[in-house]
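Sat 14:20. Reprocessing the chain from the morning session after the first attempt stalled halfway. Input below, unchanged.
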Amino acid sequence: MTDKELQEIIDAYELKHLGFLIERLPPIIERTEIRHYLGGLVAPETVRHAESTKKGPREVIKLGRKTAYPTASLLQWLEENGATVVKLECGRPRLDS
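Finished this time. C-alpha cells:
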C-alpha cells in the first residue's frame, strides 16, 4: 500500500489516533479474531452486542455464520467509542494528538 493510499483510507474513515494500525493489521478482521488482533482490548462479544443494538462498526461482512469487519471501519468504531493512544513521558500518561 502506498503512502497516498494509506492516507486516503485514514482520511475517509476520519481516523485521528488509530490510523497507524491500518498497515499493521489485515484488511478484514473476523469477529472471533478481534481479541487477538487488538491485543485483548475488545472482546468479540462486545462488538457483537454493539452490532445487534445498531451501535457497532458501520460496515459488516457476513458470509454464512461468519461475521467480519473491514479494519478501517472497526478502528473508526473504536475511536468513536473513546479509544485513543496514550504515550508515557517521564512516567506520566500524555494523550497523543
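The chain has four helices and five strands.
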